[in-house]
Amino acid sequence: MTMNIAVLPGDGIGPEIIKQALRVLDVLKNEGMDMTFTEAPLGGQAYDQYGHPYPEFTQNICRAADAVLLGAVGGPQYDNLDRPLRPERGLLGIRKDLGLFANLRPAVLYPELANASTLKPEVVAGLDIMIVRELTGDVYFGQPRGMRTNENGEREGFNTMVYSESEVRRIAHVAFGIAMKRRKNGQKAKLCSVDKANVLETTEFWKEIVIDVAKEYPEVELSHMYVDNAAMQLIRNPKQFDVMVTGNIFGDILSDEASMLTGSIGMLASASLNATKKGLYEPSHGSAPDIAGKNLANPIATILSAAMMLRYTFDNEAAAQRIENSVKTVLAAGYRTGDIFEEGMKRVSCSEMGDQIVAAM
């Protein structure tokens, strides 16, 4: 089967990190894996070329592809654009267009990076969490939304938090399924559903549906936690979690928090899947315009996102593990980009990190 991959370099450091991920995939392609890569613009890059962050040209390429590999979007030069034209709207647009409702963000701490975390090594050593975030509903997409002036002349902004039963059920099934696949050494699978059911009716409804879906997965131990407590527990005792499932806005915040447990957000890959396993794969960090073009970025999150693409869309576990093991090999050898550097290690640039991982492949 040909793997048709849309490549969206995007803005800031996006082109630099995507280049390194493609070098890694090229190793597999040169060994006979059937891949095609078609490049298209997204975000600010697309606005500059087409006047829209997710233009029709890019839409057509992404719809025809089996998977999409994305760098990053955004930059300060676009901050004054009308909201529908800002780079981030391109990212929201592609998620909605492709029906990418399930966001998977693993937070894995490699043993070599235990000292790079801001938490004590004994707190984070051995960390391996998967955060499953619903991606196309919640307050980010709920209607009505906007800004208005009331009759008394006072201005206000408003958004709507809303979830349908089908939306909650489908993300719950994804999370329970992942929890079952992650069972290790005969241990019971664990899933923690994060809500704010004591205050928000939307998440009280969320909790009710998740409990109902749990009846189909007796092998999984389901727990519930309020989002404020979950944020605290991620710092206090993160290894209590295996799989976490939550809504769009809570997942956005918690997954970024979890990324820092690993030493750097530059280490955190992500996948966003639809019902047919078509996925958008991207690093969880932003476009980092302050270091763009300086060959300083950490490409590991993007390379690990490519590994997730092979695993979740193309069902090639062996190739995914090969990439992940190559990253482990390079870290064990002491190579570090600036964001994860510590004394005694070998500081390398973005392209030099790519060199080492390609060599390890």
Provide key terms for this protein:
361 residues; ten-stranded mixed beta sheet; 2 domains; single chain; alpha/beta; 14 strands; Isopropylmalate Dehydrogenase; two-stranded antiparallel sheet; 40% helix; 12 helices
Account of the 3D structure:
With 361 residues, this protein is α/β, with parallel strands linked by helices. It folds into two domains: 1-101 and 289-361, Isopropylmalate Dehydrogenase (3-Layer(aba) Sandwich); 103-273, Isopropylmalate Dehydrogenase. The chain has helices spanning 14-30, 44-50, 56-64, 87-97, 121-124, 165-181, 201-214, 227-236, 248-261, 300-312, 317-332, 350-360; strands at 3-10, 35-39, 67-72, 102-108, 128-134, 146-149, 155-158, 189-195, 220-226, 243-246, 269-273, 279-283, 335-336, 346-347. Strands 2-1-3-12-11-4-5-10-8-9 form a ten-stranded mixed beta sheet, with helices on both faces. Helix 1 (14-30) packs across helix 10 and helix 6 (165-181) crosses helix 7 (201-214). It is globular.
CATH topology title of the largest domain? Isopropylmalate Dehydrogenase
How many individual domains?
A: 2
Q: Report strand order across the widest sheet.
A: 2-1-3-12-11-4-5-10-8-9
Can you tell me the overall shape?
Answer: globular
Q: Specify the number of helices.
A: 12
CATH superfamily of the largest domain: Isopropylmalate Dehydrogenase
Largest beta-sheet details: 10 strands, mixed
CATH architecture of the largest domain: 3-Layer(aba) Sandwich
Helix and strand pattern: EHEHHEHEHEEEHEHEHEHEEHHEEH
Distance between the termini: 22 Å
